[in-house]
Amino acid sequence: MKRRVFLGNLLVAGSVAGASSALAEQCLKVPASGAGPMKPLQKPLWENDLTRTSEDGPQAAGMRITLSGRVLNAACEPVAGAEVVIWQACVNGMYNHPNEHRNDWRDPNFRYEGRTVTDEQGRYVFLTIVPGSYPVPGKSDPGLGLVSFRAPHIHFTVTPSEGEPFTSQMFFDLFDDMNKFDLVLYKRTLQEQKLLTASVIDGGDGEPAQCQFDIVV
Ligand SMILES: [Fe+2]
């Protein structure tokens, strides 16, 4: 069975129907953010299922999510044919990257990065897991009393067929209490924080949770 995750059934009616009511707000551009040190060294394979590393291999640990949404421009028009690359930590907050200097357990069954392309409606989809948070030693802000850590997040770069790449990272509303102390997010306005935060809805019956995130570039 082919592992690639297809659009269609995975984009539940709720997420598509919800787009119209949320559209005006979500047509506000998503705040950009640096790629950070864990950016893939080369373009990932065309693979949108990060929950396994091989066809019939074991499943990665962690809470599975179907991450989907649309890439839109500021006029709320879908951006078709845009390349979407994501990279993230495993459930233990570890990256699979030469710049990962911590020595903790790293999930061998997780793919860590993926790549897909938007369809005619600007839609994209990945099957992945909610990453773990991780410490960032030496990056705390003592004046604000912040703990030096990153809340769970997924990095992404969207490259339209015409135009410049757009890079940022998305957070999860599951962790709103933690998000406001994240080293990247805490400096943002509440509106910016909202634009950078994906909603997560229980998938039910052991299915992956539905994580909806529109990317306005
Ligand atoms: Fe990160």
From TrEMBL:
Positions of the Intradiol ring-cleavage dioxygenases domain: 47-184
Source superkingdom: Bacteria
Signal peptide: 1-24
A Pfam family reported for this protein in Swiss-Prot or TrEMBL: Dioxygenase_C
Record-listed E.C. numbers: 1.13.11.3
Alphabetical keyword list: Dioxygenase, Oxidoreductase, Signal
InterPro entries the record matches: Intradiol_dOase_C (IPR000627), Intradiol_dOase_core (IPR015889), Intradiol_RC_Dioxygenase (IPR050770)
GO terms assigned for molecular function: ferric iron binding; protocatechuate 3,4-dioxygenase activity
Family designation: Belongs to the intradiol ring-cleavage dioxygenase family.
PANTHER family documented for this protein: DIOXYGENASE, PUTATIVE (AFU_ORTHOLOGUE AFUA_2G02910)-RELATED (PTHR33711), INTRADIOL RING-CLEAVAGE DIOXYGENASES DOMAIN-CONTAINING PROTEIN (PTHR33711:SF10)
Protein name: Protocatechuate 3,4-dioxygenase beta chain
Species of provenance: Parendozoicomonas haliclonae
Gene for this chain: pcaH
